[in-house]
């Protein structure tokens, strides 16, 4: 089973996925992040890399992501890219991901790609107010991605906000479930855990019979 969790930058996608894994068990659920599949910009100067639009679907290697999802669904291990957000390049190393019963893929643009959409058994959209998402984005970029406040605000104004209204917000129409952020923590985790546990129970019943 493949579950897609979409929503704007800072909406709580990764936190939701991690909460589900904690409750269901890391032995049963594997997480893939769209951000691991940014295209490698090593062939252009660093200053130009920083001006790239990372919130447009063209910035993502969706073919590799879809290939990896298909492999995991067949029970095959995959090697996923390791992306450096400070330099906007891919590492020469890759991360080995073993197949598990449930695959969660999260990202801001996963609903824009038809191949990804077709692979998803459940599509979830987390709807979070712009101001809260911006605050979370600032905190994450500074603490985890080596950015300055000025860089984050500049990126938000030039690409994050306009791309959200072009490529994220409109695509929530493809979601099976839309969860307001105010209800996110309890509702979405409980709902996803319920769906996953039902799926696992069905698989166990089939295996026994």
Written account of the structure:
The chain is an alpha/beta fold. It is built from seven helices and seven strands. It has a single domain, classed as P-loop containing nucleotide triphosphate hydrolases (Rossmann fold, 3-Layer(aba) Sandwich), CATH 3.40.50.300. Helices cover 45% and strands 20% of the residues. The radius of gyration is 17 Å and the shape is globular.
Topology:
Elements: E1 2-7, H1 13-24, E2 29-33, H2 46-50, H3 62-73, E3 78-84, E4 89-97, E5 102-106, H4 114-119, E6 122-127, H5 130-144, H6 149-168, E7 177-180, H7 184-208
Parallel strand pairs: 1-5, 1-6, 2-5, 6-7
Antiparallel strand pairs: 3-4
Helix pairs in contact: 1-7, 5-6
Observed structural traits:
two-stranded antiparallel ribbon; globular; alpha/beta; Rossmann fold
Name the overall outline. globular
Provide the spatial order of strands within the biggest beta sheet.
2-5-1-6-7
- CATH superfamily heading: P-loop containing nucleotide triphosphate hydrolases
Estimate the strand proportion. 15-25%
The biggest beta sheet reads: 5 strands, parallel
Instruction: Give the total of beta strands.
Output: 7
Structural class: alpha/beta
Q: Tell me the number of structural domains.
A: 1
Number of helices, where a helix is a run of at least 4 consecutive DSSP H or I residues? 7
What does the radius of gyration come to? 17 Å
C-alpha end-to-end distance: 20 Å
> Architecture, according to CATH?
3-Layer(aba) Sandwich
What level of helicity do the residues show? Answer: 40-55%
Q: Spans of 5+ residues with little confidence (pLDDT < 50)? A: none
- Average pLDDT value? 91
CATH class: Alpha Beta
CATH topology: Rossmann fold
């Amino acid at each position: 089973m493949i579950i897609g969790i979409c929503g704007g930058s800072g909406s709580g996608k990764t936190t939701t996925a991690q909460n589900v894994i904690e409750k269901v068990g890391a032995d049963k659920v594997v997480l893939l992040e769209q951000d691991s599949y940014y295209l490698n910009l090593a062939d252009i100067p660093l200053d130009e890399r920083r001006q790239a639009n990372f919130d447009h679907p063209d910035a993502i290697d969706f073919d590799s992501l879809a290939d990896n999802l298909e492999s995991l669904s067949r029970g095959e291990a995959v090697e996923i890219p390791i992306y450096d957000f400070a330099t906007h390049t891919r590492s020469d190393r890759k991360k080995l991901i073993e197949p598990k019963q449930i695959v969660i893929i999260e990202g801001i643009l996963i609903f824009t790609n038809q191949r990804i959409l077709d692979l998803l058994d459940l599509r979830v959209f987390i709807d979070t107010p712009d101001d809260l998402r911006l605050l979370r984005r600032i905190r994450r970029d500074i603490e985890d991605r080596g950015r300055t406040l000025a860089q984050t605000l500049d990126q938000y104004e030039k690409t994050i906000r306009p791309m959200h209204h072009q490529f994220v917000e409109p695509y929530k129409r493809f979601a099976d479930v839309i969860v307001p952020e105010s209800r996110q923590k309890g509702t979405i985790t409980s709902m996803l855990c319920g769906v996953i546990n039902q799926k696992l129970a069905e698989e166990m019943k089939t295996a026994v019979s």
